[in-house]
Structure formats: C-alpha cells, structure tokens
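PT: before anyone asks, these are the final sequences, not the draft ones from last week. 836 residues across everything. Please model them as a single complex and drop the result in this thread when it's through.
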Amino acid sequence: MQIEIITIGGEILSGRTVDTNFAFLARALEAESVQVGWHSTVGDAADRIGEALGLALERADAVVITGGLGPTPDDLTRKAVATALGRPLQLDERVLEGIRERMRRLGRKLPASVETQALIPLGAEVWPNPLGTAPGLLIVHEGKPVILLPGVPYEMEALATGHAVPYLRKKSGRHVETFTLRTAGTFETLLQEKIGAAPQGWTGASLAYLPSYFGVDLRVTVSGNDPAQVRAVAGRAYDELRARVSPVIYAEGAKTMEEVVGETLLEMKYRIAVAESCTGGLVAKRITDTPGSSRYFERGFVTYSNAAKVGLLGVEPGAIEAHGAVSAAVAEQMAAGARRNAGVEVGVGVTGIAGPEGGTREKPVGTVLIAVSSPRGEAGRKYHFVGTRNTIRERAAQAALDLARRHLRGLPIEPKLE
Amino acid sequence: MQIEIITIGGEILSGRTVDTNFAFLARALEAESVQVGWHSTVGDAADRIGEALGLALERADAVVITGGLGPTPDDLTRKAVATALGRPLQLDERVLEGIRERMRRLGRKLPASVETQALIPLGAEVWPNPLGTAPGLLIVHEGKPVILLPGVPYEMEALATGHAVPYLRKKSGRHVETFTLRTAGTFETLLQEKIGAAPQGWTGASLAYLPSYFGVDLRVTVSGNDPAQVRAVAGRAYDELRARVSPVIYAEGAKTMEEVVGETLLEMKYRIAVAESCTGGLVAKRITDTPGSSRYFERGFVTYSNAAKVGLLGVEPGAIEAHGAVSAAVAEQMAAGARRNAGVEVGVGVTGIAGPEGGTREKPVGTVLIAVSSPRGEAGRKYHFVGTRNTIRERAAQAALDLARRHLRGLPIEPKLE
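LR: through. Structure below.
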C-alpha cells in the first residue's frame, strides 16, 4: 500500500512556513511501515485542491490531506473535496454541538464562520479534534481512504497519532515493531563498518542511520504479518545491535543527552556546575532545557575573557600564558574551579575555538578541550570538530555532556568500537 | 508565470529530512515575485521522477528539480530527466575537467562514479557548482525551462542564488524590490491595527507579517514592469511603514537582535556581562553566536540557585526572602552584580518562571523580570510570556537583548505604537 500526502496552504507554498506537518506524518507512517509514495503541495484554491486529489486517487492507495479545514474564507479543503468526490456538504449536528460546547468552555463568542467546520462531506466518518474545532474526516471513496486533517500542527499530530496512523497501519494489515538507539562520539561510517551485514539476518527489518550534530541515531523498523515473528526479529535485532555498538549508545528512543546526564546526577545525588568559553552558555542552556533541572544544576560560568577565567574560576594566569586559553590545563582548571566555586560534586570545563576567526596552525578552528572533575577523579579530552561556528558549538556542547556522563558512569572516555 | 518545484529523495519522502531546500527556493522566488504554483516530492525512482516531470511540464511554465544529482547509484535524476525529455546523456569534457580539478585541489582520489556527474542531457546549459561536483543544469524544452539543482543545501543555495532565481526572474520579465523591517515587543494584531489600510495605496506591493518568537517581521515585496515605478512604490512603502511602527523596529533585513546589541556596544565602546536564571545561559549563547563577540562580551553568570545569586552577584538574601527570587528587586541586583563583578559598563539580569512547574497565582509560569544597569542608569520591566518552557525561554532571551538595546539607545523601555 502506498500513500499520497497532500499539503494545502499558500504559506507553505511560499516557503514562509516550513512543512513540518508532512515530515511528522511521513515519519509516523514510516515507523508503522506504511509507505509514502508521493507528496504534493498546492495553494488555497479549490480547483488546485480538486486536481491534486484526483491525481492522488489515480496513483495512490490512500490519500491524506492536511490544512485548509479552518473557518476563514481561504480554508477551502472541505468544499473542494466535497466537489471533487461528488459528496455534498451536510451539516453534522454532533460536530456543531461539539464546537459550541468548546466555545462555551473557553468563554468565547461563536463567530458564525466557525459553524462552517460542521459541514461534512456526505458519508464521511468524523474523528473528534481534542485540541480544536476542525475534526478529522475519513471518507472511503470507491474503496480508497481519503483522510482530511487540520493544518495546525498540534491538532494534526493529535489526530494523526490517535486516528489516521493507526487506521492506515491496520489497513496495510502489517504488524510493526520499532526502536531507536542513540549514539554519540562516533561516525556513521564506523558504525556501518561495525554493524556490517547483520541486518541481512533480520527478516522484514530495516535499519536507518540518522545523523545529526548530536550523534547518529540507529532506528530499526520490523514489519510483517505475524506479530510473534515481528517481535522475535525486533528482539534479536536489538540484542545484536547493542552487542556491536554498545560503547557509543547513550540513550534509547527520544531521550536526550541532557536528560541522561540529569538522571545520572539525580541517581548519584550529585549536583553540577559548568564553566564554558567557546560554547558561550550552550551547555548550561542544554542542561536547563530539562524541566526540574534546578534539582541538580547549581550554576554556570560563561568565562569568555581570560580575566573571568582567572577571577571566577581560579585559573592560573601562568597556565594561560604557558599553554594558551585553549589548552588541556585551562580546561582542567575551569572544571575544578567551577566545582569548587559552586561547592558541588561535579564540575565541567569547556574551552576551544569556534571560529570562523581565531584558528592557528597548532590550534585550528574546531579545536576544543573538555574536562570534568568529580569525587570519581578527573577526566579530559581534546576534540577536533568540523563545520560552521554554530555546528562546532553544538557538537562541543554534546561532547561535554557525553564526557560528564562517561566519567560519572565509569565508562571509557574515548569509546572504541571494537 | 507559475513554477513547479520537484524534490527528489527517499530521505525527504520518509520525513527523516525536512525539505528546507524547497522552503529556501520558494522564499527566494517569492521575493522576486516568481510564483510557485505546485510542489511535489517523489523518491529515488526513475519512473516516478519522469512522471513527476511530465506532469509538471503539462501544468507549469517552468520546472525546478532539486536532488538526485550525486554520484551514487540512487542518484537518478539526470538519467530520468534525459529519458523523459528524449535528450540522451552526453559526456561534457569541461564539466569532467572541472570535477578532476576539484578532486586534485582537495587532494582526493577520483572514484569512477564521480565522472557520471559529467554526463549531461543533450542541449543543456551548464551552471558550474562553486561548492561541489554536480553542476546546475538548464534545459529549455519546447519553450519551457527545466532546471536541475543538486540536493546538498549549500550547493543548491549557491546555484539558486547565482543562476536559477535570477534566470527565472528575468524570464518572468518583472522588476522587483523587497525589504524587511524586524519588530520586537509587540503583537501581529497591534501591528495590523496600526498599519491599517496603508498597503492598499502601494500599487503592486504585498506586505507579509512573519511572526516568530523573535518578534514579527514585516516583509514588503513590490513588483511591476516599470523599474522606476517599482522603486518609487518601495520607497514610499518603506517610509510609510517606518512612520507607523518605528518604535518597535529593531533591525532591517536579516540582521539579528544580538548583532544589533553587539554593534551598539562596539559603537559606545561598552562591554557587557549577563546574569541569567530562567534562561539558563541562552542570553549568553545568543550574544556569543555572533563571531567576534569576545570584543564586547566579557562573561556570563548562570545563577540557577539562590546561593549562586548571592555568592556570585551579591544579591541580598533579604531581597530574595522579602520578594522571592523572581522579583524586580532580584533582577535589578543581578544586573548590577553582573556589571560590578565583571568590571564592565553594562549588566543584564534575567529571572523568571519558565515552567512547566513552579508557577503560583501571583507569579504564574511565564512571569519574567529583566533589568539592565549601565552608565546611563538602570531600567527594568516585568513580562508575561505564554507558551512552552522552550518558547518562554526564547522570548525572554529576545526581550532581554531588546531591553539592553532600548536602554543603551535611550529609547522607551515599553514601546507604544501610537
């Protein structure tokens, strides 16, 4: 079964809004082994919407349309679909009552235009929208499902997760298991080398390498008609993959590095302080992205100037003179100084050259030194990151969090895939 | 003239990669008044590429295809287009020499597969790729331009900016002027009220409101056949818009708030230090996003705990007890303490509740206090931001930078659109 997704909206077609709805839907469907074969985007014009739907019904086995279900005059999807499929719009009393009820609850006046959202093409099944007034709609037209979802991302996501994706998954008749292992501190090519041909032994499974500056995520999707066999293959794939690359795995699923560091600190009853130069506050920002991080994050120092490194962290001026501000000695003294000054168990220090200026032959742009200090002792490492100023800073922040995790967990500081 | 953009690539169709190439192209074309009528995406399959091109040539006046020009076996665009248009591939010696030259310069071995990128459909014009080996291609097929661009974003952007967009703009025969005014500290609805019907007097102009958590950008695009008239309208629109909303404009074009703050500091020969609680390092990170920011950014304090506020910034424990850590008094003492401790001219303090927990009836989630201290005196303001933890932190960081800018420039701290 192959799906076509149609996005409706002038703001998408103009490039002003990036179409994250499509990416969300496609990923959610792919994770359930429902294949997306085509994606098309047209503006808010009834004839264009009708043409796109006609074409999709010719070539695809099912169609999902997002956007244009709102109450304003440029929301034309309902009307265009009704016309294209020859299914006149009819007022659905239950939908109308739901809209009225919602407006009462929010204490808002009901503009007459909102009621147009209760006009439903003949024969459509209604999927109530828990977060807004435009319901999702399912029309099975000449045997092919046509699904209409609103364009507001969180409303679309709720209806996709709650209705559209499970419906299409069931329609495709396949059972699916999926898992993700997140790795940091290695390269896609090294992972590929290490994993080798293992996936060939996993019947019905696919392995995706998903690189970003946080590392490389490994996502396995297994699908098949026999649930027990799918589960068995997924279990084997999980074990084999872990056995091959466990030294670089830092999390599973959608968990972030800062969440893992936070959990580790809570578990050990440690608090942390960070001292940053080239990352300029990004490590502290990442740690405090997690709600409740005040339980373990005590303070951060953004010591951009040498005076700040010396004055706030007790870095020795002699160390800066002898080795430079971007050196292992200074990173170590920053980590120790952050820990001491904050009176906490764990200190992290980051110093480096984010560029684009400031590189030298010995210390090119991308050179970053990271150190950590704790009751477990001290650890440090030199990195060479490539990319733009932004990429280098992001990679350095991820590496700093990973180094703290490795040190606290007693793992090797330089992971080897052996 | 209406364009169709076709994106090629399984990684796009699976949702794993968000199609930022399309958004870039559509925005660049819209800014030149070239209208995008359709966008479609297909995977790495020659028949699907051919079908998509055929359909596009039926309905659009010109076609731009991105992706699938690389050297690997799943890069099929060149071949598929050659087949669909009946224009056999031919080896282009100059392109081949360019590829060889590039490989020599980078000191890399030339894999045989790279040479396939020198195979060009008959009659195509070659646009050299300054950043990679796959050139851009222009084929005028039965009077309609078909443009092929690589999928690597920076290569695509270079060829789009250097060749494809100017070509299509000229083809459309229209003259275009565009400008952007960036506003912060107000709402889209207030801007609309203030600007009113003014755009109706600007012949051939369109005004777009582009909201984000940095504020609302106002982009005006004027197009027409008479260059002098287009310039005159753009000039009038610029003057009228500025006259109406100047109190909330912080920059023009693509300039960021942190760049404006940096320029202001350099101009005044001031240096800055920031003290952050709820933003957790984001203000320092934003300031140091700008290359060369070490000339004016001295240090940052992420004082998450009360002990850090007291110990590092000299905030009085009595002030925290009497007013709470999230209070105007504490924000003021943080700003003054950052300035004093760093020995610089400008100090900024940010304290607030980013949520999702920690709100009270008097101080709900989203309450943020920001203060600034400098030789000009002191200033401060209370804000109520709505949204998620992430949104609130982003908005607070933008507001802190804007407050510093307003204070340093002697502008009103609470801008009024009147």
